[in-house]
Amino acid sequence: MTDGLVVVDKPGGMTSHDVVSRVRRLAGTRKVGHAGTLDPMATGVLVLGVNRATRLLGHLMLTEKRYDATIRLGVATTTDDADGEVLATASTAGLDEATIRAAAAEFVGDLMQVPTAVSAIKVDGKRAYQRVREGEDVELAARPVTVHELVVTDVRVSDSTELDVSVRCSSGTYIRAIARDLGARLGVGGHLTALRRTAVGPYDLGVAHTLDELAENFVLLPIADAARAAFPALDLDEGHATDVRYGRALDLELAGLTAVFAPDGQFLALYEPRDGVARAVAVFTG
């Protein structure tokens, strides 16, 4: 098995770790990791690294993500989604579509967002969701996130009012928290009933495969192709390529984090501009 990325269309009802375990069996290697989790309820794009590509995951420019989601207003839950216990209910009869759309528009831009209590954020070394399961009252600090775009694609006003949204946001943004906060802004509570991640960085559903498809034909995006898709690329001459193999600085101007390649197309390393030269961030030739 070579090194590369696997883009999975995650099914509902599985944890991200479940998907990693399945791909480990399919790939025949323990060296499989993921570039950001999805909740069991959620479906869609989950990017996995195999063998050496696991080292690429932390450097991938996967800061922007896209989601399609359904938010139900009038019901607040312990987890801010449909898997939680109901905390409170309220009538949505007084809401109209214009009011809902106007409130949703307030969640675009640079925001300070309090993550959902059942997130994977660590609190004193333990995941927040583990503390909640153990009966603790977890309060997380607000953190900066950016919602680049939030489009309300449909609103269904009734005794159980729902809206469908498409969101483009920074990594670390919790769509469940948007559902919770939108419900609070409207004074009725809210939670997420469906979530589908449609893209992570340059990888979208168009290149994703279901686990059943991967079981029949294991599609691996080679590490060189993955690096070219996610980073600016620079093809080096043989002299510079030799320097890279030894992790040496390069007298080259780079605009930012860059994937560098040998003359034969081999992916060598990630370099970044620092102190007037290009310096290695991670070398992949060893």
UniProtKB/TrEMBL annotation:
Annotated tRNA pseudouridylate synthase B C-terminal domain residues: 176-218
Keyword Isomerase: yes
Active site per the UniProt annotation: D39
EC number assigned by the record: 5.4.99.25
Keyword annotations: Isomerase, tRNA processing
Reactions catalysed, as given in the entry: uridine(55) in tRNA = pseudouridine(55) in tRNA
InterPro entries the record matches: PsdUridine_synth_cat_dom_sf, PsdUridine_synth_N, PUA-like_sf, PUA_sf, tRNA_psdUridine_synth_fam2_C, tRNA_psdUridine_synth_TruB, TruB_C
UniProt domain tRNA pseudouridine synthase II TruB subfamily 2 C-terminal: residue ranges: 231-284
Boundaries of every Pseudouridine synthase II N-terminal domain copy: 24-175
Highest taxon in the source lineage: Bacteria
A Pfam family recorded for this sequence: TruB_N
Enzyme class: isomerase
PANTHER family the UniProt entry points to: PSEUDOURIDYLATE SYNTHASE TRUB1, TRNA-PSEUDOURIDINE SYNTHASE
Biological role stated in the UniProt entry: Responsible for synthesis of pseudouridine from uracil-55 in the psi GC loop of transfer RNAs.
Recorded family membership: Belongs to the pseudouridine synthase TruB family. Type 1 subfamily.
Protein name: tRNA pseudouridine synthase B
Gene, per the UniProt record: truB
